Hints:
Largest sheet: 7 strands, mixed
Radius of gyration: 22 Å
Shape: globular
Helix content: 25-40%
Amino acid sequence: MRSRTSRTEQAGAFAAVDLGASSGRVMVGRVGPDTLDLTEAHRFPNRPVRLAEGLRWDVLGLYAGILDGLRAAGRVDSIGIDSWGVDYGLLDADGRLLGNPVHYRDARTEGMARKAWGRVPAERLYAETGIQDSPINTLYQLLAAEGTAQLAAATRLLLIPDLFTYWLTGEQGTELTNASTTQLIDPRTGTWAHSAADALGIDLSLFAPLRHPGDPAGRLLAHVVEHTGHEAPVTTVGSHDTASAVAAVPAVAGERFAYICTGTWSLAGLELDAPVMTEPSRAANFTNELGIDGTVRYLRNIMGLWLLQECMRDWSEPDVVPLLREAAAAPGPRSVVDASDPAFLAPGRMPERIAEACRTTGQPVPTTPGAITRCILDSLALAHRRAITSAQSLADHPVDVVHVVGGGARNRLLCQLTADACGVPVVAGPAEAAALGNVLVQARAHGRVTDRAAMRELLVRTQLLERYEPSADRGVWEAADARVPRR
């Protein structure tokens, strides 16, 4: 048996910059033959700002948090950055940022799908990109920006993780897993969908050259080294946080699994070797985003714990524990809503909107915070069931277990309800999947772990996982499913 000292000496240290919709953090992962430890060096808020022209990200505040986090992290072997997808910053010819990046929940993309389909029919667009119809897609954001002075002045577009990499290193690139969320990548080839982009009037030369997870992304600039107190290379990771989270699914060899990456969003689906770009897949609104090692994240976007977060904001309730206690005591699934409905995308008045959705479908209207919380969790479990069931059928890929990773893995009630609704066991954890996937891709690039199978085997041996068995009563979920119309 190796001693603790020898394991520590063999472990590499990797800084994962992990940016979420409400906060960012810098985590330090230590990876060795029998070691996968993660500690938080620094956490900082992510507070979008509403201006007269719309909702914007405070990217300078985030960058300051990243610099402080890298300083707190100390000396590391490498740095990797992941964040949410679809959003971007525009640079002028001098490499300067043109305004604050627009938040994906901004209303500017309303009606942009119809504009796109007027140039490229929806069927052709899906056949060339395999990406679901969602108002947040980069494609629709660019169509909304047509004719603006900002876009006219831009010579470069960098997705959010690539923008921060550029500020750290001075090097520009477009990481592939995040690029696939733009609806401008062909997932069969992993290259730009030139035919669709040309027909849409989108100039792909705005994008920097594509990079892949594991590629070197540059070294810290001198002023960054001065601020952080150390120098390290930046390594390209699965910079879409879902790509990093799926890389950290602790599946055992040969296991037939589905995954649900839970947090502000729930991303429910399968890891495949090839995309599913059929007409039934488009009609079911499944997306084919790219993962590490040429894999495909075949999934459906679900609103996720955003629904509960918005309700808690409305209630001025900072503590989720009493809400979950009340929800567990409430009967269910009594009232459910469609947690994939874009009607829940915008912030504000979430309890009233959930109540109205129940009223419209003739279900009992939840009125107390506990009852609304139970409605949300039941609705998420039902949406998970629908997504996993449909994905298996559309991809002809049966599963025996569902892995729940991300923040929702800590929500025991949601995990149990998901197992009950899906009718298969749920394995919950790790909760810090995006940061762990970020760290593991860096560790592989720097020789600390060999391949994807070894990454997952290390996760299984080192991370705390919890298994939930489904209840035998499937009828209540079939009845709940019948109460919510399918779009």
